[in-house]
Amino acid sequence: MEGTVNQRVEILLREKEISQTEIAKKLSVSKQTVSNWISGNVQIPLRHIVSLLTEYDWINARWLLVGKGSMEDLQGKKQKDSPDQLKCEGMVDLLTRQLKDKDDLILSLQKEVGKLEERLENRKH
Q: Which of 51, 64, 77, 103 is the most buried (most CB within 10 A)?
């Protein structure tokens, strides 16, 4: 299956009869945000992709991220240690680490902006 993560989320919602409202509540976003994802107006942030995979642990991460395999993790717990499963878990771990790193960088930059704004304010007076 080709396409984007956004398109696969749209397929997921349609085929599994999951409402945009349900997804919005589970991911703590607005229904309008989910609608923007589905329409392709906005890319789904990594943190929400990770949350989606966590909330719906039956979703095949490989399918959602790259469009390979089936939508559902059909092998489930039986093949937990299979190479594909480990690879998918590794992708989720990688995405989670990257998200944390970006959040840390954002926090650091926000602190720096605060300091610069304070210095600028002090110069005005």
A: 64
Q: What is the pLDDT of residues 82-95, one digit of tens each?
A: 556 666 667 777 78
Q: Is residue 81 classed as helix, strand or coil in its secondary structure?
A: coil
Using DSSP's 3-state secondary structure scheme, residue 22 falls into helix
**Alpha-carbon span 72 to 91, nearest angstrom:** 16
User: Cα–Cα distance between 20 and 13 in angstroms, integer?
Assistant: 7
8 burial (CB, 10 Å; 0-12 / 13-18 / 19+) is buried
Backbone φ, ψ for residue 110 (5° rounding) = -65, -40
Q: Enter the pTM of the model.
A: 0.58
Domain boundaries, the chain: 5-124
Q: Indicate the Cα dihedral angle 112, 113, 118, 122, nearest 10°.
A: 110
List the end-to-end C-alpha distance of the chain, in Å, as a whole number: 61
Using CA atoms, how far apart are residues 50 and 89, in angstroms rounded to an integer?
11
Architecture of domain 5-124: Orthogonal Bundle (1.10)
